[in-house]
Amino acid sequence: MTAVQLPGSPVIEGDRLISTNPATGDEAGRVPVTDPTDVVRVVERARAAGRWWAELGFDGRRDRLLRWRRLLAQRMEQLAELVHAEGGKPIPDALVEIVTAVEHVDWAARNARRVLGPRRVRSRLVLAEFSAHLEYQPYGVVGVIGPWNYPVFTPIGSAAYALAAGNTVVFKPSEYTPVVGQWLVDTFAEVVPEQQVFTTVHGLGDVGAALCRARIDKLAFTGSTATAKKVMAACAESLTPVLVEAGGKDAMIVDADADLDAAAEACVWGGMTNAGQTCIGIERVYVVEPVFDAFLDKVVTRAGRLTVGARDADIGPITMPTQLDVIRRHIEDAVARGGRAALGGPDAVQPPYAYPTVLVDVPEDAAAVREETFGPTLTVNRVRDADEAVARANALPYGLGGSVFGRRRAAAIAGRLRSGMASVNSTLTFAGMSTLPFGGVGESGFGRIHGEDGLREFARAKAVTRRRARSLLRSTTFERTPADVARLVRAVKMLYGR
Ligand code: NDP
Question: PANTHER family per the record (predicted)?
Answer without folding.
Answer: ALDEHYDE DEHYDROGENASE-RELATED
